[in-house]
């Protein structure tokens, strides 16, 4: 916690005006302080109790202002640690025309990448995994789930499923799943992705360090070998405030039926 933060709340009761609800006035004061650089990314705010005492307002008012700022991405709350100014995040653009791994994609941008493992193991397949991967009920599925982190910012949760015949030892996956698949001659060459909007649940928002219910991107990818065989079924959640997916569109050849007015 920095000295400027305490000063902001000490002077709030002198600058508060009638009309707008107090929580909105407090919210604006904090936003202004962040925008002016009085408190910067990573700086801790005083506790709700301390803010209420300094600003001479109720803790309920403080909590409502802070929750609004967390939902807006201005602040982040870390369980057991407190409330902090959110890091300034440069949005990441990913092309929809290129099939790359997260590790490769971030490396091209000069970003340091690491993963937090959530799951690596062999399981009985779900009905959906059986259908997509073409598995029988007596086969096993390899599941690899990771929190993907770039420049110390959690960006995505990836949950991949593959046939255990392709990936008999999920623990062998290190930095890149695709690098592991390439070693065995099973790297996918094309994929079909479906992207939809999603409001993040409690667990996913905790991992991505955003407020529950904020907008995210749900991405379902089915990847194929050159033979046309499905090799990978991945369901991912990406932060909506950090990712832009970009597609290039071209006019079809003149004369196509679909092009005629």
Automatic annotation (TrEMBL):
It comes from the Bacteria. InterPro entries: Bact_HTH_transcr_reg, Chorismate_lyase_/UTRA_dom_sf, Tscrpt_reg_HTH_GntR, UTRA, WH-like_DNA-bd_sf, WH_DNA-bd_sf. Keywords: DNA-binding, Transcription, Transcription regulation. The keyword Manganese does not apply. Pfam families: GntR, UTRA. Residues 20-88 form the HTH gntR-type domain. SMART domains: HTH_GNTR (SM00345), UTRA (SM00866). This is GntR family transcriptional regulator. It comes from Aquamicrobium soli. The lineage of its organism: Bacteria, Pseudomonadati, Pseudomonadota, Alphaproteobacteria, Hyphomicrobiales.
């Amino acid at each position: 916690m920095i000295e400027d933060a305490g000063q902001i709340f000490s002077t709030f009761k002198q600058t508060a005006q009638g009309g707008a609800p107090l929580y909105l006035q407090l919210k604006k004061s904090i936003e202004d302080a962040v925008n002016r650089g009085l408190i910067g990314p990573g700086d801790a705010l005083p506790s709700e109790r301390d803010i209420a005492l300094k600003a001479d307002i109720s803790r309920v008012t403080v909590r409502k202002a802070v929750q609004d700022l967390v939902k807006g991405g201005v602040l982040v709350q870390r369980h057991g640690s407190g409330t902090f100014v959110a890091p300034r995040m440069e949005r990441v653009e990913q092309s929809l025309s290129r099939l790359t791994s997260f590790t490769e994609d971030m490396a091209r941008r000069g970003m340091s990448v690491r993963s937090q493992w959530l799951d690596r193991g062999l399981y009985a397949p779900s009905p959906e995994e059986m259908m997509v991967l073409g598995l029988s009920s007596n086969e096993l599925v390899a599941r690899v789930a990771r929190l993907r982190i770039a420049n110390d910012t959690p960006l995505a949760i990836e949950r991949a499923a593959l046939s255990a015949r392709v990936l008999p030892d999920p623990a062998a996956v290190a930095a890149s799943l695709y690098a592991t698949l390439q070693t065995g001659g099973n790297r996918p060459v094309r994929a079909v992705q479906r992207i939809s909007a999603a409001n993040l649940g409690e667990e996913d928002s905790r991992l991505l360090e955003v407020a529950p219910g904020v907008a995210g991107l749900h991405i379902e990818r089915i990847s194929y070998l050159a033979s046309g065989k499905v090799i990978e079924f991945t369901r991912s959640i990406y932060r909506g405030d950090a990712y832009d997916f970009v597609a290039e569109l071209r006019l079809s050849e003149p004369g196509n039926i679909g092009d005629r007015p």
